[in-house]
Amino acid sequence: MRKFKVTISPGNSNAEFEEGKLLTEALSVFSIFPDTPCGGKGICGKCLVEIEDIIGRRQVKSCNYVISCDLTVFIADSPVFQKSSKVKSEIFAVDIGTTVVKISALIDGKFTEAASFLNPQRIFGHDVVSRIASREYDKMTSYIRNALAENIKKLCSSDDAVRDISDIAISGNTVMLALFCGINPGKMGTFPYEAPIEELDNYRGKFNELNDNCRVKILPCFTSFLGADFLGCAYYAFRNYHGKTFICDMGTNAEMAFISENTVYASSVPLGPAVEGMNLSCGMTAGDGAIISASGIYPRIEYKLYSGGRALGIAASGLADIFSILIKTGQIDKSGKIINGDSAADGEKRIYLKDEVYLSQKDVRAVQLVKSACRSGAEILSEKSGFVFDESDNIILAGSFASSVNSSHVFSLGFFPYAEKTKVTIAGNLSLKSAEYALQNSGYIDELKEFRKKIQFISLTDDSSFEKKFYENLNF
């Protein structure tokens, strides 16, 4: 296969890449990570870069520009490299999600969410299983560390500010944390799914990609399937809520637990990236042009955008609203079939929402599968733990999907069994909050380690009833 040279200007650093490689992947080798909130579908235009190739000098979308000749990328002239809002902070908290990475900064004694970006490891797979199977561990470690460093540097006002950064605390699932630390995650991909819990507990590395003195706190994990993100969520519920509590952190995986005074029953079920807005035709992370909520009756639907005047895609928080409306008004039937819609060139049905944003039949099926997996996991955990949803005192929904979603829609769509008399709380990103607590409270990490002794792990996916429940729960 032919190779072509990519040169970065200014600086003239260059490398050769095989024909057919995406420009975003090539740029990552130079520690350049364009913003791709649409997941590389080319619908948002956030990854525009200035290039010169055999056609001439122009702007292209780096997420779908395929390398087929020598080219130069002009960093200084590209909108994607313009500096973002600055913060003055020496302390940062990070949640490394399988799909999205979130950063908050300590400013005047208070943490403020400062930035987010798509995890560049996604080119090796959309979930932890596919990333483990890729075996590209060194590359994935380099990609996430460099991407995190570059995004934090963009937040800093000067090189001196970067050198002054002293502490970073990192939460996330077990695989993401292992890859950040350079720990081989291979054993987590095969039975008995051994997790490097002690190695992560004892990690004492520095974040040299920022400066040689930056200390890193890695929050403790519980198992391969229940990482620091889950542990922070469960401990939050344990500390702050009384009685019987159900909590679920909804992201690429659904990590859930039933909690009472001295008992924690917990498990995890894979959902995939659709619940975070990825893997959908017009899915994207919350940003300029993203639909984050909807209300009304089809076709007279009011859409709220994160920012901007034109809809570019659908964020996770808008999905439940849109689906609830379309099902209620008969555009999607209980089986998930689009009843009234436009036909694409390939014959697939679509429902156009706003501007050029739409849902396809494949999108509906993707959300259906997510909903069924989540509901089936919750039901089995309920049965095995002896907790009943209707008898719960509290239900807490956390994670990217639940950050600003209408909780009634989550239940009406069937993600969880109804619990009519139970108080439902939308708690936001508790994984990021856990990282923040670790930086403000010296004993917090030890508290997490002590708390995890209370947890009883219940396997869901190898349960004989899971497949049966999964098919029973497919309908909306």
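(ticket continues) Second input and output from the same batch:
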Amino acid sequence: MQVTNINGTSGNACKCGDWLSHWKKHSGQPLPQFCSETRCAGNELVGAHVQKDGPGDKSWYIIPLCKRCNEAKGATLTVGDHVKLVPASGRSTCGA
């Protein structure tokens, strides 16, 4: 699956404390050992804001990425289909 890392989202917050905690709480998946980008083996993970590539869905989602991949704002990334995209909207997930 192709996603784009979103610029200018670091000021957004939710009740989960941080975006990686938000992903862990709402994904139903264990925290991966490595970055969700298929060509990366980075292991210092953060919760990153992304959008699905393509014209149909402009919603914001959270996935675990390493710090290096998360700093590549605007980059198109390939993530495994097994990675759950968790809505970044606190209202629809954690009530924030």
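Agent notes: Residues 19-27 form the longest helix (9 residues). Strands lie at 2-5, 45-52, 61-66, 76-78, 86-87. Closing as not reproducible unless the customer responds.
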